[in-house]
Structures are given as structure tokens and as C-alpha cells.
Amino acid sequence: MNEIFTAIFTGITAFTATNLDDLVILTLLFSQVNATFRRRHIVIGQYLGFCTLIIASMVGFFGGLILPAEWIGLLGLVPITIGLNQLLNPDDGDSSSEPELETEFSPTSGLARLISPPAYSVAAITIANGSDNISIYMPLFASAGISSLLIIISVFLLLVGVWCYMTYKLTCQRDISNLLARYGNHFVPFVLIGLGVFIILDSASLSPIALITSCLCLMGLIKIIQASQFKTQSL
Fold first, then answer.
1. pTM of the full predicted structure?
2. What 3-state DSSP class applies to 53?
3. Cβ-defined contacts of 176-179 (< 8 Å, 24+)
4. What digits encode the pLDDT tens for the residues 50-103?
5. What distance lies between CA 188 and its chain's CA centroid?
6. What is the pLDDT of residue 224?
7. Distance between alpha carbon 184 and the CA centroid of its chain, in Å?
8. Three-class SS state of 235
9. What whole-number distance in Å separates Cα of residue 210 and Cα of residue 206?
């Protein structure tokens, strides 16, 4: 029973951490609904795109059937690294992605109408915005058993529908949408770090002291990379 609750909580946490930005994107899409671009196109496209991300992330699960659990658990350093990078470099977030989505991936654009139905256009947006999802889901799936994996995926698919419903309602609440866009991403780094810590400790890949040391080393490495990028830009 504890395994079921743990898998449900893990699924909710991982999905929320990797899809907060989708709240803004989906809200934008629902605000563009018209005679040719229906709400069902957004829901179907979101499910198509998200299922593609899940299938791509299954590489981690099948790798977990071959490699030792301790090695697979080290993949938990991936969400920790992403979280630390977002925490130390907040300017590298997705704040500039909103206008790009409106111009490049608009479901009512001529390119989308010619190449594919609106639903495939939404799926393409979901996949293009899902690189972080795959990097988080792969180690998560790799450290999960078959029963936990099925529960986590079920939670994911349920939350996709919840996300679509929430964002549809948010189209009528601009203040809430703007609040999520402005402050939602501030919580994501801490959730990602916590998720990575859970994966590593649950698989006993590192001791707590070794994990803390690894995090400090990652922070130093991120700072060094940031400093080198700043020097390059100033030259």
C-alpha cells in the first residue's frame, strides 16, 4: 500500500514540476479557440504529444532492467542539475518562450494548416517543449518497478486532462494566468532538486554526505560555466 501512495505522490510531483510552463502555453492555446481550432484539438494534441514523451522516456525503464539499481539511481543527478541551474540562473528560464510560441507554433498559422490538422500542431508544441520532461522521466522510470511505473503513467495521463481543464478555465481568469506565468517557475527548481534527491536516496546510489558533496560540486560547476559564458559575451 505504501508503494502505491509513494508512486502516486511521485507521479504528481514529477508531472507538476515538469509541466508548470504548460499551464501558460495551454492557456494561450485555449485563448485562440475559433471556428477551425476547437478545444478538442488542444486536448487530443496534448495527449498525443505527452504520450510521445512518455514513450521516449521508457528508454530509462528498459535500461533499468539491465543496469544495477545503484547506477540507474545516479540519473537522479539530472533533475538536481536542472533544478540547480534554474535556481542559480533564473534568467535562463522560459520567460521568452511565450511570444515565440505565438508566432512560430500558432495552431492557426498557414504552415500548421497545410502540413497537419490542428491537433498535430498542438502535439508538436508539447513535444518541442518536453525536453526537460524526458530528462526527468527517464531516471524516474529507470528507478521504478513495473507496478510503480504503471501507476505513475496513469497519474500522468490523468493529470494531462486536469491540466487541460484548469487552463481552459484560466482563459476566463487573466489575473490568475499572469500570476502563474510570473511566479510559478520559482517553485520548479526546488521540486526538481527534491525529486532527484528522492531518486538517489531511494536507490541507495549515494550516501547523504556524498549526495550533499555532489550537489555542492554541481553548484560550483554551474557557477564556473556561468562565469565563462559571461566572459565570452563581454568580449
1. 0.63
2. helix
3. 177/23, 177/24, 177/27
4. 998 898 888 777 766 566 656 666 767 877 887 788 788 866 544 444 434 443
5. 9
6. 86
7. 13
8. coil
9. 6
Note the pLDDT of residue 176.
62
- DSSP 8-state symbol, 108: T
Return the number of other C-beta atoms located less than 10 Å from residue 230's C-beta.
10
Annotate 60-97 with b (16+ C-beta within 10 A) or e (fewer).
Answer: bbebbeeeeeeebbbbbbbbbbbbbbbbeeeeeebeeb
| Residues 196-205 pLDDT 10s | 787 788 777 7
Region 21-27: what's the mean pLDDT?
76
Helices (H), the chain: 2-30, 39-64, 69-73, 77-88, 97-104, 110-115, 118-128, 131-142, 146-170, 174-183, 188-202, 208-234
Q: Is the pLDDT of residue 18 over 80?
A: yes
Measured distance CA(197)–CA(73) in Å, rounded: 10
Contacts of 185 (CB under 8 A, 6+ apart): 20, 21, 86, 93, 94, 95
**CA angle in degrees (0–180, nearest 5) for 133-45-112:** 110
Cell 491540466 identifies what position? 163
- What the block records as the C-alpha cell of 6 is 509513494
d(CA 171, CA 30): 7
Separation of alpha carbons 108 and 177, rounded Å:
22
Structural contact between residues 73 and 202, judged by C-beta atoms closer than 8 angstroms: yes
What is the rounded distance in angstroms from the CA atom of residue 18 to the CA atom of residue 9? 14
Q: Which of 51, 23, 10, 200 is nearest to 134 (CA)?
A: 51
